[in-house]
Amino acid sequence: MVRRIGEYTKLIFIVLIMITCTDPAPDEVEDLYPQEQIPWPSLADTPWPMVRHDPQGTSRSNEMGVTSIQGVALVLSNNYYESSIVLDNNDGMLRLGTLDGSTFLEHFNTTDEVDWDLMIEESGEIVFGPTQAENNRIYIAGRKSIFAVDIQAREIIWEYRNFDWTASNVTVGLSGELYYFVSGPLSLVSLTGEGDLRWIHQNSIHTTNSISPIVISPDGEQLYFSSGEDITCISTAGEVMWKYPTNNSYIDGQIVDNDGNLYYYSRNDGAFFCITSEGELRWQISKESLGLQEGGSGYRPTIDFQGNLYYSAKDTLEGSGIISLSNEGSKRWFYPVLSRVDLASDANNTVYYGHSSGQIHHTVGAISVNGDIIWSFEISDIFGHLYNEPVITSDGAILFPLDHTFGHHVIKVF
């Protein structure tokens, strides 16, 4: 009996210890796919040096955008604009515009006023933005030429002309070489930083397809672009390394992550894809399995610092919205909001969107990494359409470009 009482006492003691002990605090969830901005010394070290921010096409800023709106301003201009915006070291805006049949590069100072401009060429509207490289250089794709501009001297350094049709945005390689597309026939052209021809790769499949910027691997050695039939990987020497079929979909808005994985949406396949740097399928997920009517709306996506992806899409219940996918291709959330501009994200993994209703009503907003609305703002009686990607300044202001308009140029939220 004594022995049995002792065993009971021991058991009660153990139970009391288990009850009174507190569990250790759970470890924080590990960030499995951390991202960082890839150093690219051939680009200018500015808050937003090129279209989609960087050669990987992330549309992701190192800066933190505003968490609440303190005010809204309009940046005004007399020109009729189409170009995207890039920023200099002081948050001054650089943008191309047309006036009286000529294209100008204009610089807006920190008080949002034009303090200088430079006539580039006599041509129609320019639809692609400038690219700001190191050493105060800007590269511009005109109607028939590529231009290099010294923005400190405010003069054209050189002009390279070898085509009769529109060129795409100029992308700067890691060693300072240049890449851009021309149409008629569709060809990828590479120049040196001094404007000498390196090579031309002609697309023999779809010679009249739309033109789009390329994206580049983190090591600067591989270029990715859509041929209209496949995703083509080409070396910096112009040699084809591999192709991945896209079911005759033309792909725009490709993104490359820090591991060299390539992400895109194929309309004909009705699916999101991730392809490794070796051209192998990492994952594929259909729009139906995500509850979507359409996975890509024609506006370019963004990737945050946790490796999450964000696309404009349409679901089967609520219509237009933004969907977030994990780096492994699973659905994180869907937020029902209309966005008709390219998406952008910031250092806090906040995603920025916008759309115009008619030509005078505009809505801009911000969504958190967890899919919650942070702020939304409506502005009316401003003629034009929100157009191209938002740009984030070093002090957190969000710049939403307007297209095709005289007078109104940019909506600035701060």
What does this structure look like?
- A hairpin with a 3-residue loop joins strand 25 (309-315) and strand 26.
- This protein is 5% helix and 40% strand.
- It has 1 helix and 34 strands.
- The protein is globular.
- With 414 residues, the chain is mainly beta.
- Strands 2, 3, 4, 5 and 6 form a 5-stranded antiparallel β-sheet that branches.
- It has one helix at residues 2-20, and strands spanning 72-77, 80-81, 86-87, 93-99, 102-108, 114-122, 131-132, 137-141, 146-150, 155-160, 171-172, 178-182, 187-191, 197-202, 215-216, 222-226, 230-235, 240-245, 255-256, 262-266, 271-275, 281-286, 292-294, 302-303, 309-315, 319-325, 331-335, 344-345, 351-357, 361-367, 373-380, 391-392, 398-401, 407-413.
- The model is unreliable at 1-29 (pLDDT under 50).
Structure in a nutshell:
By secondary structure, the protein is mainly beta. The protein contains 1 helix and 34 strands. Strands 2, 3, 4, 5 and 6 form a 5-stranded antiparallel beta sheet that branches. Strands 23, 24, 25, 26 and 27 form a 5-stranded antiparallel beta sheet that branches.
